[in-house]
Amino acid sequence: MAYRWRAVGPDPATFTSMGQPVTVIEKPSSVSGVVRFETNRPLTGMGHEIYRSADDVLADRPADLVARTLFEAGGVESVHVNGNVITVSVSGGSAGLKERLEELFIYYREGVEVVMPEGFGD
Fold first, then answer.
1. What is the pTM of this model?
2. pLDDT tens across 86-97, in order?
3. Are residues 84 and 95 in the same domain?
4. What is the C-alpha to C-alpha distance for residues 79 and 12, in angstroms, rounded to an integer?
5. Which of 11, 25, 65, 81 is buried most, with the most CB atoms less than 10 Å from its CB?
């Protein structure tokens, strides 16, 4: 069940984004057209996830969300996620990918309204 939160209390215009901030470090690779990102959160546990195209993204697990958002940026040929390391093959550079990853798990943004079902928390 999806929940929609409605701000209560101080002026909602003063609220900042909420969710799970992720620290991302971009590291170059010795292989041309490959960039590596390291996060402060594990995304796959100990498993590997490989996405050769956006069509390979079939669910909404953290690694799936990472792959989906990177493919949506354009210029991404493949994504490999292992634990907290994301390896991306790019055709046109990595500009903007780090920022997409940093904001990926921030859910509550300006204009988003999340409403709890009646009786929740009673």
1. 0.72
2. 999 999 889 999
3. yes
4. 37
5. 81
